[in-house]
Amino acid sequence: MSADPTQLAFEWDCRILSDNGCGFPAPGLHSFLFKPIATVGGFEFNKVMLLALITTVLVVGFFWAAFGKAKVVPGKLQMIGEAGYDFVRRGIVYETLGKREGEKYVPLMVSLFFFIWIMNVWSVIPVAQFPVASIIAYPIVLAAVVYVTWVALTFKKHGFVGFFKNVTGYDKSLGAVLPLVMVIEFFSNLLVRPFTHAVRLFANMFAGHLMLVMFTVASWYLLNSWMIPAAGVSFIMTMVMILFELFVQAVQAYVFVLLACSYVQGALAEHH
Amino acid sequence: MIANLVQLAAEEEQNPLVPPGPELLVGTIAFAIVFFFFWKKLLPNINKVLEERRAAIEGGIEEAEAMKVEAQSVLEQYKAQLAEARHEAARLRQEAQEQGAALIAEMRAEGQRQREEIVAAGHAQIEADRKAAASALRQDVGKLATELAGKLVGESLEDHARQSRVIDRFLDELEEKAEAAR
Lengths: 272, 182
Prior knowledge:
The complex is a heterodimer. Chain A is mainly α. Chain A has helices spanning about 5-10, 45-65, 75-95, 100, 105-120, 135-170, 180-220, 230-270; strands at about 40, 45. Chain A has one domain (about 60-270). In chain A, strands 1-2 form a two-stranded antiparallel ribbon. In chain A, helix 5 (about 105-120) packs antiparallel against helix 8 (about 230-270) and helix 7 (about 180-220) packs antiparallel against helix 8. The longest helix of chain A has about 45 residues, at about 180-220. Chain B is about 90% helix and about 0% strand. Chain B is rod-shaped and about 195 Å long. The relative contact order of chain B is 0.02. Chains A and B meet through strand 2, helix 2, helix 3, helix 5 and helix 6 of A and helix 1 and helix 2 of B.
């Protein structure tokens, strides 16, 4: 048995062509279950929670080191921090909301981006090897923050009636189809959108982790007699998937924040 | 095997789309901390510095602009001065040339005048000398004539040949005198 049976959850001595009669220990939902590391008063603290908290420490720690004593002439760390900050601020927020309207939402978007990104990057960090966002609770929290911001903003901007006009895409010129459009828009904006917002991030990380585990486990499982070349192929695929995941992790953080900005933009948009 | 059974049991309970409560709590706290630090401390910090930097850069640009304008004006001033100096130098040269030419002409005229004076003085001297010589000669000629006449009287004047001999002798004497005088 491995040191952490709940993560990989397969028998170490289970190999292809061996005659102990076991099959390929495919990863599944059990790959996303963790035994608690510690239990404090009935509260089970597990590895993913630890990773989430380390993410917080890392993000705050890095930016504290970079911006804590920010100077007009930046040091190396500050320069890197500024590059990341500028990427989110200019590349995402200003692009979608504009400089004047967007400035207020920069802290939220910057926090979202770096928090999500580092949560995702755990996927390929040795020992951690688990994307925090593949546990749906974390994307849900973040999507909820954006959702609440969006709803509150829409109410504040348009009032009660304006809110419903905004979320239902009310437009008199549509005529007879208007009720249908309104129902669809209502469900789409208020119910489906927060769900997809969270699930998009969750599912990408979930699937990515499954793929990584599958190729990793297969590399071991195939490592026997004449199947060894196949193990090699599987190992190369693991490497390829790691590179691909690095890309997807950043893209998903980017997409999440971009969507958050576009929701805020929808809330701020004048009704027409 | 027992571990597998435990996993199976757990899987039946688990739906990946149903969030576990404790995770929601931890996620909220984790994100809230990140957001709080960014919102209250880190981004205001960096924004202040970025603003300072922007101001510094803009100040620098303005300063550079002012210096450029100044340099331009100084250059123009310098160019004007240079042109003026050139003009002045040309004028001075022209003046000097003119003065020099006048001086040369004057000198030439003076030289001419002096030459003419000297020549005139020479001529006057020669004339005076000639006159003196002529008067001296006239006296000598009278004396010689008297001498000659005395000699002629002293000698017999019978024959022509004798006469001519005397005259020749006289002339030879005269020549000898002239020779000696030289």
